């Protein structure tokens, strides 16, 4: 495991989204960090000082970094949650990219104000798009071990899959059935593995809604 920085501060809104995987990775790796959660009003006063003027942002010993996957990979590297083998690392990134594809497919519906149109769009995703993408992840995950996505131990690939399945299972995506992931046995085995991690349990008790 690489030596972590002496000070890490992760800044983001107080919500569950892609950046939750970063918080979980830091927690699982037992890396101390300052979890700064800001309001939209606070962010408006900070935005122009940040890389790419977007969140999340990580302050590592006074230097600011942005981009969710870059931050996640950094935590994976210092927390021994990223495979060192190049092919295993490539497989990890492939799964993370597949999860991002699903999130980006759903994201436009979040900003639809017309309630019926939102439900119609999400129903189409749930019937046509999401099953194809979830099956692709199912096929890629669990080849080395039933309990883990890539290798015989926890990686950031497991964490992003867990976060994705939690999003669906929580039922917050109105119009997308909360049981949409139930038929994917590999993904659910990984979800159960991460959910039983003692540090994840404690984190969920403190932060999940």
UniProtKB/TrEMBL annotation:
Segments forming domain GST N-terminal: 6-83
Stretches assigned to the GST C-terminal domain: 85-209
Pfam families per record: GST_C_3 (PF14497)
InterPro entries from the UniProt entry: Glutathione-S-Trfase_C-like (IPR010987), Glutathione-S-Trfase_C_sf (IPR036282), Glutathione_S-Trfase (IPR040079), Glutathione_S-Trfase_N (IPR004045), GST_C (IPR004046), GST_superfamily (IPR050213), Thioredoxin-like_sf (IPR036249)
SUPFAM superfamilies: GST C-terminal domain-like, Thioredoxin-like
Highest taxon of the lineage: Eukaryota
A biological-process GO annotation: glutathione metabolic process
CDD domains given in the database record: GST_N_Sigma_like
Annotated GO MF terms: glutathione transferase activity
Record protein name field: GST N-terminal domain-containing protein
Provenance organism: Spongospora subterranea
């Amino acid at each position: 495991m690489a030596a972590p920085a002496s000070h890490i501060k992760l800044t983001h809104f107080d919500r569950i989204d892609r950046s939750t995987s970063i918080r979980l990775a830091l927690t699982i790796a037992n890396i101390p960090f300052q979890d700064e959660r800001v309001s939209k009003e606070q962010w408006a006063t900070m935005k122009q000082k940040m890389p790419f003027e977007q969140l999340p942002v990580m302050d590592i010993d006074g230097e600011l970094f942005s981009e969710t996957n870059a931050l996640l990979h950094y935590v994976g590297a210092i927390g021994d949650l990223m495979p060192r083998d190049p092919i295993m690392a490539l497989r990890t990134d492939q799964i993370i990219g597949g999860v991002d594809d699903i999130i980006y497919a759903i994201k436009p519906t979040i900003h639809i104000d017309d309630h019926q149109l939102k439900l119609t769009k999400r129903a189409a995703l749930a019937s046509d798009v999401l099953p194809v993408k979830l099956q692709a992840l199912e096929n890629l995950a669990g080849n080395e071990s039933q309990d883990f996505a890539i290798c015989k131990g926890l990686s950031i690939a497991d964490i992003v899959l867990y976060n994705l399945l939690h999003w669906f299972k929580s039922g917050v995506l109105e119009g997308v059935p909360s049981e949409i992931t139930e038929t994917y046995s590999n993904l659910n085995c990984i979800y159960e593995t991460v959910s039983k991690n003692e540090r994840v349990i404690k984190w969920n008790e403190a932060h999940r809604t």
